[in-house]
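[worker-b] picked up task from shared queue
[worker-b] task type: protein-ligand structure
[worker-b] ligand name resolved to 2-acetamido-2-deoxy-beta-D-glucopyranose; SMILES cross-checked against name lookup, match
[worker-b] sequence length check passed
[worker-b] input payload:
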Amino acid sequence: MRILTFSLFFASLALSIFSASTPKPKGEWNFVRNGTTGITASQAIVVSPTLILMFDRVLGDPLQIDGHQAWVELWNLETNTGSAVNAITDTFCASGSFLSNGTMVSVGGTAVEFPPNVTIAPDGDGRQGIRIFEPCADPTGRSCTLFEDPSTLHLAANRWYPSSLRIFDGSLMILGGTHVIVPFYNTDPENTFEFFPPKDNGQTRPSPFLEQSMPSNLFPRGFALPDGKVFVVANNVSMIYDVEAQTETMLPPLPNGVHVTNPKDGTATLLPLSPPEYIPEMLVCGGSNTSDSIQPLDLSSQNPASDQCTRMTLTPEGIEKGWIVEKMPVGRMMPEMILLPNGQVLIINGGKSGYAAYGAVADTNTTDGSNCDHPAFTPVLYTPDDALGSRFSSEGLPTTDIARLYHSGVTLTPSGNIFLAGSNPHGGVVTNGSEIFNTDFRVQFLNPPYMSVQRPTLKGIPEKVAFNDKVTFEIDIPKGLDTGDIKVALMDLGFSSHAFHSSSRLVFMEAELSKDEKSLTVTTPPNNRVYPPGPAFIFVTVDDVTSEGAAIMVGNGASPPVEDQGISLPA
Ligand SMILES: *[C@@H]1O[C@H](CO)[C@@H](O)[C@H](O)[C@H]1NC(C)=O
Ligand SMILES: *[C@@H]1O[C@H](CO)[C@@H](O)[C@H](O)[C@H]1NC(C)=O
Ligand SMILES: *[C@@H]1O[C@H](CO)[C@@H](O)[C@H](O)[C@H]1NC(C)=O
Ligand SMILES: *[C@@H]1O[C@H](CO)[C@@H](O)[C@H](O)[C@H]1NC(C)=O
Ligand SMILES: *[C@@H]1O[C@H](CO)[C@@H](O)[C@H](O)[C@H]1NC(C)=O
Ligand SMILES: *[C@@H]1O[C@H](CO)[C@@H](O)[C@H](O)[C@H]1NC(C)=O
Ligand SMILES: *[C@@H]1O[C@H](CO)[C@@H](O)[C@H](O)[C@H]1NC(C)=O
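[worker-b] inference finished, payload out:
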């Protein structure tokens, strides 16, 4: 994953002799508590360099707006305080992503909820919800609003627990879901795809694959591949969907009977893509190996979660080899995987036993409602390029005492640390301290070592870049860092919902440091299939010390669907 030119390589040899006398500053990983949300952050997305937009349900969260409960909140990363945002429909268990024009769209949700006191529930039916958050330039977010017009702007189908991703033409593909609130398995499925803006005259596309993935197939995990096709894993099966030809090609099923989507949430990520070939590799971790033929009342919060990760290279040879099995240090239900700018994957949150959702399994009452138990308090790093068998490590990683179970939100921030909030394995707000797993409003950050040392700084990043282009910007590299080891990551930080980060992506860019080491010239991704056009952050990591992320628009910034841009990859 080292991306350096030959000249850089020789420069680094010379420099490492010089820098031997100036040891690289060492930071440490640490958890820091800061601030309290007013809603449960069951969904979270970074919408600007300073703001995170969070969504929840309408069952008594304390944050108020217009004399009633708010269920959408903007978190200001500069002040670590939140402010309420008005929404019309119920966003409970929606999904979302950015479009190619920088607009964030939230899709799906739940029907009107009836808390004990109906006066706090002015929510509209959110199952066909489409909520538009236009690019927000105000660092405080005060002037930024969520736009909804349910009578004219809505999905084709009712979708609770759908997922979504931005595809090569900059639109959103929306996958699956269920029509009504189901307590555990998907028993009333919407096994189709649709798009926003709509394709097919607004008709849905039936998916035999989603049919086959019943009944643990909520929040299917979908990823845009560098050729424009879409990888989907749902329950224990996976496939590649060709959006243009409308074909589904089955891939090998997950080994050892492991299920990885809701209510048996594992998680999945597309590993970082690197030039020149951008070969896609999928990593799928956690979940449960208990059979779907077992009804929830015969399951227990104490059933061990799966410690299995499986990885597959999506080339004909890689698919032939199938899923390669690896083991995490501990099993995890509802793990989250965060791509880090240096190419490592952080695995965090979830519990070591049980299931997602609440109030469904036999002994849910001994855990005060949670179907999941034994929170996994120590994160793990996965290094994709290390040898099989030695990729996981918790060395140097801190342990927290805050359980992040069902309905947690977590994301990498533009500063480069990890925002953690939420957890609420209950049907309402429980904060009286008598419960094992309260509704959690405490915000926490996990700081990587680079947060506490002098970091490279970037200046003069353009607002917008084209595909297959060269861009030069200024960089200030602290003394003591090996300038022969530079990685430049173009990232979509993803939309966090239910142990999945929709559209999350890292594409490494070829980079060349100027002779005076004051500017960096990077080559943008070859085309809109390698990086679906839309907003991104650029992070530069020098000798494992990462800069803050700089916001950038990738592609022409037009509204979807956009034309193909850039050059094709060699076949
Ligand atoms: C919390 O965040 C605020 C705003 O960034 C900052 O001023 C304050 O020092 C932070 N507190 C802690 C304990 O880190
Ligand atoms: C219902 O909510 C209203 C407005 O918040 C409050 O004034 C009233 O006391 C509540 N009633 C009950 C029974 O909780
Ligand atoms: C996947 O799960 C389904 C539903 O429980 C089951 O019928 C099927 O046999 C499983 N398939 C594989 C390949 O494990
Ligand atoms: C199921 O997973 C648990 C936890 O990882 C493991 O102990 C058990 O051996 C697995 N069972 C089968 C049949 O693979
Ligand atoms: C949990 O306890 C509540 C209240 O006693 C009861 O209504 C519910 O059925 C119990 N749930 C399970 C899964 O046993
Ligand atoms: C805590 O809150 C729950 C849910 O509102 C309630 O059932 C329980 O009685 C409360 N316990 C105490 C000690 O107040
Ligand atoms: C982006 O495109 C969407 C879908 O057409 C539209 O609703 C939105 O207003 C557009 N935003 C901008 C900034 O043009």
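[worker-b] attaching auto-annotations
[worker-b] Residues 6-19 form the longest helix (14 residues).
[worker-b] releasing lock
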